[in-house]
Amino acid sequence: MKDIILADLSMLASIALVIIFVLFGWYIVWKLILSRSRFVRELLKGTGDSTISELKTSRSKVKKIRKD
Cα–Cα distance between 56 and 33 in angstroms, integer? Predict the structure, then answer.
């Protein structure tokens, strides 16, 4: 009986450690790479008024090329 309890506890501890490592890895990747990607931020935040206003301001900053 004691062996079964120890086996269950070790299984739960293993699963908890895997989940913690995955979440920690995701946090590191988010901070280093994904948070700088505009596409990923828009996917997670959805389309709101702030993204529309950002698009308008970014379009106005784009220089027009003069064609002669």
Answer: 25
**Dist. CA 51–CA 68, nearest whole Å:** 34
pTM (predicted TM-score): 0.52
Cβ count within 10 A of residue 54: 13
Q: How far is CA 67 from the centre of its chain?
A: 41
User: Quick check: 16 and 8 in contact, CB under 8 A?
Assistant: no
Percent of the chain at pLDDT above 90? Answer: 41
Alpha helix (H) ranges present in the chain? 2-32, 38-45, 49-61
What would the mean pLDDT of 17-32 be, rounded to a whole number?
Answer: 94
